[in-house]
Amino acid sequence: MVGTRGVPARYGGFETAVEEIGKRLAAAGHEVTVYCRGERYGDEYLGMRLVYLPAIEKKVAETLSHTGLSMMHAFREKIGRDGADVALVFNAANAPLLPVLRTLRIPVATHVDGLEWKRTKWSGAGKRYYRAAEALAVRWSDALIADARGIQDYYRERFDADTVFIPYGAPILDGTDTAKLAEAGYEPGGYHLVVARFEPENHVHVAVDGYRRSRAAKPLVVVGSAPYADEYTATVKELAGEDPRITFLGGVWDQDLLDALYAGALTYVHGHSVGGTNPSLLRAMGAGASVLAYDVTFNREVLGEEAGRFFADAGELAAAVEAAEAAPGEAAERGQLARKRAAERYVWDDVAAAYERLCLDLAARRTSRRAARSR
């Protein structure tokens, strides 16, 4: 499993997927190797073998440089012993390196993620690179994995390429740790919540602007930050101004506290727009949070029409926040519908089983993008 920061999952959706899928594959008896960068946590984690390699710590080079070193490590292992039966490569940006694995005759499934070229953090050159990388992923992968039907549609329409649909799973939380909330100074149902990396396509600025325009009595708690995003962070905080109702917590790495914040929120404001099925949205749904989501295809696909409310701009969000405070019972009912939907449709055991089937098919050379059409 290559192309992410590795495990334990401390950063984002890819890392969470690697941990949840990898530990289940290991428990099923498979040998799982995860390539990691950053802080070391030992040589093994939840049954997965960890290999640590460095990376160039620059936005444009971090992922690709680490994946390149990982591919070379895989090359040496293949020469020295049997090597891997299958490679799961996360992020289409790594596609230019796929010929290394093809040279080793290791079947490759590439998780293409969302529409990375739409992210505003990339310049014109960056956008062109990601568009080209998508095409290379189509050309050089033995299978493409899409975590949303909207991503499947995009690859079918743009490249006439088939993908295997495997979504993420949602953690289903049984209750709120009120002690954690109390320690942080909050009570259940007493605040609105945003959890996101500070990037324009996650619309943290719209969430803050919309809330500030509202007459909400309950505070807004904003969790998150981002490397390489100082200018955008400054913009978000400028929009907040001196509004005493808005609190920025930065990154929250205590997962128990983060889960308690999700479960205790009156509303969870989800502004993500380009990343397919979003793990933060699934976590909020699994916690029973009442979701106010930015109105894009991906979010409607995950929530359906009954388990959330949608907004297109700051004005619509302000009205939705006020409505939730006026009718908290209705907001709570939507949260329970979201939790039920997550428990039925986004199950990590099912996700891992789908990855296992795909890997076994690839190892047996039974799967190609054409063979995956009916999946």
UniProtKB/TrEMBL annotation:
Gene3D superfamilies registered for this protein in UniProt: Glycogen Phosphorylase B
Record's keyword terms, sorted: Glycosyltransferase, Transferase
InterPro entries for the chain: Glyco_trans_4-like_N
Domain called Glycosyltransferase subfamily 4-like N-terminal: residue spans: 12-169
PANTHER family: BLL3647 PROTEIN, GLYCOSYLTRANSFERASE
Name under which the protein is recorded: DUF1972 domain-containing protein
Species assigned in the record: Actinomadura parmotrematis
Lineage, opening ranks: Bacteria, Bacillati, Actinomycetota, Actinomycetes, Streptosporangiales
